[in-house]
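Quick check before the chapter quiz. The format below is the same one you will see on the exam, so make sure you can read both the input and the output lines.
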Amino acid sequence: MPYFTSPVDGARLHYTDQGPATGPVAVFLASAYMGHEMWEYQMLPLAEAGYRCVGLDRRGHGKSEDTWDGYDLDTLADDLHGLLDHLDLGDVTLIAHSVGTGEAVRCLSRHGTGRVARLALVAGVAPGVVRSPGTPDGLDPALVEADNEVFRRDRAAYFTALADDFFALSRPGNEVSPAYVRYMIDRCLVSTPRASNAVRDVVAALDVAAELAALTLPVLVVHGTHDASAPLELTGARSARLAPHSTLKVYENGGHGLFATHAELLTADLREFIEAGQAERTGRADAEALAGAGAEL
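Here is the expected output.
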């Protein structure tokens, strides 16, 4: 079972590495509470198609070590960069969901794009959902804190009550089994109470609008019309407006859990995005080779 140590404090963090070692690389960041298993319907098909798919369990999530400290956005972003360094990955397509989008953007703003070539923000909470200087139309912080209190009193009941909204199960075509919903709730409860509460604090304080606007790499934004956790206009649509080289794909009836309800569509869009990067790299290599040949003549 693969682990690496955080470059920040030596925390033992788990990751999974699927597919051929020589394939185009995609690195997946999961939602709050969930580990890499959240991406089952994307990572496995892409790995089977020849892509190298790496999934990180953030600290306190999945099989990673439960730590007391290290849940600030900078440390989580440094953990991610530590994984990229540990595996010596390059030309990465970084794919993030929900709070993972904040970690991904902060990682790029702190460490640059030397290892990451493209970024996909899936049902992201970036650039922020709570009122802040960068999100003046965000949610009232007092309401968010009241919701956090409900969460802290009974996480199991909280996840169960919100499952239908998470997957937007009332919308046409959004079909996941009760067994799958139960499985995802159980996976969320693997995240420790400390990690769960701390990551909610990250969401409450998130404001990466300026960092999104400074990105120079291609960005794919995928968001659902019925995302109750991260409303489209407040998050996905705004991220697409902020990132200079972005493409926005809106999934009709999609909720926050569109990785399951719209699994095949999302996997196809991610594959197309990765392949576009491969084509660009091939084109640049060919152009450089031609230029070198011309210089020799």
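If your answer matched, good. The chain is about 45% helix and 15% strand.
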